[in-house]
Write a structure and sequence with these properties.
The protein is an alpha/beta fold and 211 residues long. Helix content is 31%, strand content 27%. It has one domain: Spore Coat Polysaccharide Biosynthesis Protein SpsA, Chain A. It has a 7-stranded mixed sheet with strand order 5-4-1-6-8-7-9, with helices on both faces. The protein has a two-stranded antiparallel sheet with strand order 2-3.
């Protein structure tokens, strides 16, 4: 656990390819998709919150703060990251950074925060972003808390929602994570669930990864 890092799970998407509704609340194994994400991230951070709009009561059983976007208009992942940055800065603990994780990606690495934080120490002020198999995953990143004002300006004054554009402007370092080897197959640790077929594949992967 890195007590200097707070965590935010991004669960505010509209799940169009899944047919709408709350994708993170879909069942996966014996629990829900969001439960797998929370269980993977909570041991890695000093505090954890959930970014989601609408009625927070639907997440009541998770015992996590549920934070609605602090900017209007369903502005995508960056709105959730800004919300998390502002929440972490307001907490009494002296957090230095925020790690973000997508709420539809249940197999991400158990050393995500450790390795992102190590890269961020080498590249002071940079955003550390996860990558795998040569492809980066901008919603899995470590964000310095000092970026909140610039991010608010980017979202509101510039009306820009592109995560990659913001990262490129402020500087980032990629951290490559290995593929998961299981039963003779290579699994992307950042495999995310967008469609019913993806959910069925995740169920199969979950069974193959169980000891």
């Amino acid at each position: 656990m890195d007590r200097s890092v707070a965590g935010i799970i991004l669960a505010g998407g509209q799940s169009r390819r899944m047919g709408g509704g709350d994708k993170p609340l879909l069942p996966l194994g014996r629990s829900r998709l969001i439960d797998h994400v929370a269980a993977g991230l909570k041991p890695q951070v000093g505090a954890l919150a959930l970014n989601a709009n609408g009625d927070p009561a639907r997440f009541a059983g998770m015992n996590l703060p549920v934070l609605a976007d602090t900017v209007p208009g369903h502005a995508g992942p960056l709105a959730g990251i800004l919300t998390g940055l502002e929440w972490a800065a307001a907490e009494k603990a002296a957090y230095q950074s925020l790690v973000s994780a997508a709420g539809d990606t249940p197999f991400f690495p158990g050393d995500l925060v450790e390795r992102l934080a190590a890269a961020a120490r080498e590249w002071s002020g940079a955003i550390a972003v996860a990558s795998s198999d040569g492809r980066w995953h901008p919603t899995f990143a470590l964000w310095p808390l000092g970026l909140s004002d610039a991010l608010r300006h980017f979202l509101i004054d510039e009306d820009n929602r592109r995560v990659s554009t913001f990262m490129e402007r402020h500087g980032f370092v990629q951290v490559e994570f290995p593929m998961i080897e299981a039963e003779g197959q290579r699994i992307d640790p950042f495999f995310n669930i967008n469609t019913p077929d993806d959910l069925a594949e995740a169920e199969r992967l979950l069974q193959s990864l169980r000891p």
